[in-house]
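Project standup — Tuesday

K.O.: blocked on the structure for the chain from last sprint. Re-posting the sequence here as requested.
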Amino acid sequence: MKHILLAGLVSLGLVSSAQAGMLYNASYTNESGGVTAFMFDGDLQLDGDTVIVNSLLMAPTYNGVDPLFPSPVLDSFSNFAFGSGLPPVLSLSGSTMDFLWVQDNFDDGFLFVGDVTGADYSSGPSFGQITETLAPDWWTLTEKAPVVPEPSTFALLGIGGLALVGYGWRRKRQQAA
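H.V.: unblocked you, prediction finished:
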């Protein structure tokens, strides 16, 4: 029993201290003034500019409206079109873009694709039906401040752990008597 309680407490500690990729907010204002915005989990690369997109945490919106796609597809354009195997990538500067988010039947969505020689933004009906050269000044990608648990959260976890240990100790004493 003691080993089970100890393993539970250790795993709680590991889970609470584990940290996935960082959270990012992204937005692009197209030339007609429409704003595509989304939040994602990603890993900043060693160059300090490129971010590999792991998953979207907030469905993309256009002017604050969620298109409510039934089964959206998140991929890199190069993998989707050419089978490159590369993950979706965005950059803080807007210089390296390889990102595709579309409806499962590919009738709607948007993409960012290109490199330092020129990137493009293209979108379906829910995102303004626009194809244009991406303007880096209209692109914003910011790291979202990490959520830090309050000390009371750790106190409650500790109290709960002590209660489990006490319960196990009391039960063992009762069985021995």
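K.O.: great, moving the ticket to review. DSSP finds three helices and ten strands in the chain. The two ends are 17 Å apart (CA to CA).
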